[in-house]
Amino acid sequence: MTRGFGNPPAGAVDVLVIGAGHSGLAVSRLLTARSIDHLIFERGQVANSWRTERWDSLRLLTPNWQSRLPGYDYRGDDPHGFMSMREVVGFIDGYADHIRAPLMTGTEVRSVQPLEGGYRVITSRGEWRARVVVIASGACNLPRVPALGQALPQGIDQVTPHDYRNPDQLESGGVLVVGASATGLQLAAEIQASGREVTLAVGEHVRLPRTYRGRDIQYWMHLTGVLDQRYDEVDDIRRARGVASPQLIGSDDRRTLDLNALTRSGVDIVGRLAGLRDGRLQFSGSLGNVCRLADLKMNRLLEGIDNWIAEQGSSADVRSAERFEATELPGTPRLGLDLRAGGIRTVLWATGYRPDYSWLQVPVLDRKDQVRHDGGVVEAPGLYVLGLPYLRRRKSTFIHGAEDDARDICAHISAYLDASSTSSQIRIAI
User: Fold this and answer.
1) In the chain, what percentage of residues exceed pLDDT 90?
2) Containing structural domain, residue 18
3) Does one domain contain both 329 and 380?
4) Where is the domain boundary, 349, 376, 402?
5) Are 139 and 354 in contact (CB under 8 A)?
6) Do 55 and 162 belong together in one domain?
7) Element (H or E) spanning 262, and its range?
8) Are both 45 and 153 inside the same structural domain?
9) 332 with 359, same domain?
10) What is the distance between the alpha carbons of residues 275 and 178, in angstroms, rounded to a whole number?
11) Is 375 left (phi over 0), alpha (psi -120 to 50) or beta?
12) pTM of the model
């Protein structure tokens, strides 16, 4: 059954989904299962960000067996491998075809405005009205570059992961990579291997081994329920949503990529970038404390896995518990670096991303331009968001995390549409 406007004007639909990535397509599949009329707007092609805004060598952090969407699983012959970007695009593209998603690609959303009973959505291909809008445009639209970037001397090239494709595009000379998430470590390793001298500025980070006790770390986090932890079970959800992605890399040899591996490859590890004065960068002296905290949290996770295995009983194919060496640091960490004397020609800002809501003309943004929401349900009635970090569960931003979040959101949308339809009928009768 289609829940419509009653006498729908041209360009009217019950639900408009903005974004045809894995989250937008997941919610589309579940809306279809509930017979809810909807349409997806996508500014480019399906999986547009994966196609156009990722570096060449990037692979998923999660193994292939974990890649699944509602009614659709990984169908290749390498379940323990890690998809390349081309394979990710193929997976999501195949899903869009599989579910026959109601897509309008090449359609840029230019404005979403409140309207009685719903929203007015202005696009590059006309104007639409919808009772519900689902924002599934992602969390990685715009790179975050600290204000300090504006003060760097002329002649220092600045790059973000949004623009970076491979080391060949960089200026010759040293590279400072700022940020120690998965992105920062992967790019530091790749650029160092290209023959350039790399310095990595490290702040708070999440250290994880690629494999533990013979299995991928994601296997244990899935099995023990760590990835299913809900947003309303966390003491400080705002902080949890700002935690950097774990230091992992998807590779054929399933190697662990951490600060120790980078140090052994020749990368110079320094503390968090704290300032710039007279052409000299200043680094925090808290590197040791930051690394000890990351080691401690990793060991707590591994202990939790050990305890879970013990509670389940011994298994012949599970290896013994293990621990990893502490993060190795120089005896006297460097606190400063003269950009020119140090040979730095490029600064790569691996300092995260932020969503782009410049088109959203609904008063639901906080002082940091983030949508205020409760598990994806936005303060404005009939407005929802998907695909953000820790939206409803720890796994929210992973491909396999979209299904549970989308299922919850679709249930809320269905109830909202039913309630608003009933209210409209009562108002008409009165």
Assistant:
1) 89
2) 12-141+355-429
3) no
4) 349
5) yes
6) no
7) helix 259-265
8) no
9) no
10) 12
11) left
12) 0.93
Q: How many domains does the chain have?
A: 2
DSSP state of 124: T
Does residue 219 form part of some domain?
Answer: yes
SS3 (DSSP) at 422? helix
Q: Over the stretch 316-358, which tens digit does the pLDDT of each residue have?
A: 688 999 999 999 998 888 899 998 788 899 999 999 999 999 9
CA distance 78 to 76: 6
Q: Could you tell me if 374 and 230 are in contact, meaning their C-beta atoms sit under 8 angstroms apart?
A: no
Cα separation, 78 vs 84, in Å, equals 12
Residue 194: CB atoms within 10 A of its CB come to 13
429 phi, psi to nearest 5 deg: -65, -40
Q: Which residue has the tokens 């590779």?
A: 251
- Any idea what the CATH number is for the domain that residue 92 is in? 3.50.50.60
CA distance 214 to 211: 6
State the Cα–Cα distance between residues 166 and 349, nearest whole angstrom.
15
List of long-range contacts for 235-242, beta carbons under 8 Å, 24+ apart: 237/390, 240/390, 240/394, 241/388, 241/389, 241/390, 242/389
Indicate if 237 and 305 belong to the same structural domain.
yes
* Residue whose C-alpha is closest to residue 67's, from 400, 426, 327: 400
Tell me the CA end-to-end span of the chain in Å, nearest whole number. 25
How long is the chain? 430
- Token digits of residue 398: 């992973």
Instruction: Locate the DSSP E strands across 183-330.
Output: 198-201, 211-212, 215-216, 268-270, 273-277, 280-283
Q: What is the pLDDT of residues 63-112, one digit of tens each?
A: 999 999 999 999 999 999 999 999 999 999 999 999 999 999 999 999 99
Domain finish residue from 349, 375, 395: 349
163 and 129 in a common domain? no
Pairing between β-strand 126-135 and β-strand 12-18 as defined by DSSP bridges: parallel
Look up residue 43 and give its two tokens. 């500014």
One-character DSSP codes across 152-208: SPTT-EEE-TTT---GGGSPSSEEEEE--SHHHHHHHHHHHHTT--EEEE--S--B-
What is the rounded distance in angstroms from the CA atom of residue 330 to the CA atom of residue 336? 14
Q: How many CA atoms lie within 13 A of 158 on its CB side?
A: 15
